[in-house]
């Protein structure tokens, strides 16, 4: 009976706790320049210089994860562009491009886990295509 009372009180406390609701802080350009650009640069740099050790390979894995997670950030309702206009998250092509970015980053992550320079290089084609597809429609146009 005592256990039941503890569970009941805990559930009441949890039900009353305020829910966190994520809201965008930075503009789309800030997310691009602060997260996507430096992390994609790190992945693309593997073509020139292979990571030397597990720590460097982990940094490439982390860069791919950052890109994959940032795909959700660019698709977050309420995010603004530098011109104050909202990011077009209601457009199906925007969401498709965001998903393609996440998928490409996941492929780069899997490639980095192999610790194989050529595998990472092959994954960068997909990453570049994901970026170019979206930029071809949206960059400096809206």
In the CATH classification, which architecture applies? Up-down Bundle
Helix and strand pattern: HHHHH
Number of extended strands = 0
* CATH homologous superfamily caption: Cytochrome c/b562
| Percent helix | 55-70%
- Counted up, domains total 1
Rg over C-alpha atoms, rounded to the nearest angstrom: 20 Å
Low-confidence stretches: none
Q: What is the CATH level 1 assignment?
A: Mainly Alpha
How many DSSP helices?
A: 5
Structural features:
142 residues; mainly alpha; Four Helix Bundle (Hemerythrin (Met), subunit A); 5 helices; 69% helix
Describe this entry's structure for a reader:
- It is built from 5 helices and no strands.
- α3 runs antiparallel to α4.
- It has one domain: Cytochrome c/b562 (Four Helix Bundle (Hemerythrin (Met), subunit A)), CATH 1.20.120.
- The chain is mainly α.
- The model has no long low-confidence stretch (mean pLDDT 92).
- The protein is flat, with a radius of gyration of 20 Å.
- The longest helix has 22 residues.
List the helices and strands and how they pair.
Layout: H1 2-16, H2 28-45, H3 54-74, H4 92-113, H5 117-138
Brief summary:
The chain has 5 helices and no strands.
């Amino acid at each position: 009976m005592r256990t039941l009372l503890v569970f009941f009180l805990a559930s009441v406390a949890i039900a009353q706790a305020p829910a966190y609701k994520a809201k965008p802080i930075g503009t789309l350009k800030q997310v691009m320049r602060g997260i996507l650009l430096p992390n994609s640069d790190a992945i693309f740099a593997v073509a020139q210089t292979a990571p030397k050790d597990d720590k460097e390979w982990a940094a490439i894995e982390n860069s791919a994860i950052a890109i994959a997670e940032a795909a959700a950030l660019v698709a977050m309702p309420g995010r603004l562009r530098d011109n104050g206009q909202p990011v077009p998250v209601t457009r199906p092509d925007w969401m498709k491009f965001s998903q393609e970015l996440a998928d490409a980053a996941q492929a780069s992550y899997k490639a980095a886990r192999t610790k194989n320079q050529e595998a990472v290089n092959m994954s960068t084609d997909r990453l570049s295509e994901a970026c170019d597809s979206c930029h071809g429609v949206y960059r400096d146009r809206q």
